[in-house]
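A.,

Following up on our hallway conversation. Structure tokens first:
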């Protein structure tokens, strides 16, 4: 389970459902008893503290704690879903997408 949680950070899928589908399609032989999404999410929540400890351990072991500049890479989170065309927007001329 921890292996899957760590791997989920590195694959560009927006959610667990897409990630688990990818694992089932490509790596099922490595995870023959793969949980369904609901069970996966419950176990992931219970393991969050252990996963955070593992990440912090790696930061220290890799020496990143002594770096002056760090880069943060996260998954994009949709904030607004655009319903209208740009030309019909209330913000035409005063704001842009992005």
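Then the amino acids I'd put at each of the 98 positions:
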């Amino acid at each position: 389970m921890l292996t899957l949680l760590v791997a989920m950070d590195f694959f560009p899928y927006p959610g667990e459902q897409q990630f688990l589908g990818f694992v089932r399609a490509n790596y099922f032989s490595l995870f023959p008893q793969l949980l369904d999404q609901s069970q996966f999410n419950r176990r992931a929540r219970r393991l969050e503290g252990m996963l955070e400890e593992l990440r912090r351990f790696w930061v220290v072991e890799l020496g990143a704690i002594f770096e002056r500049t760090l880069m943060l890479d996260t998954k994009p989170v949709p904030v607004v879903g655009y319903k209208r065309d740009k030309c019909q927007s209330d913000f035409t001329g005063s704001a842009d997408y992005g």
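Residues 31 and 53 are 24 Å apart (CA to CA). Curious whether your intuition agrees with the design.

B.
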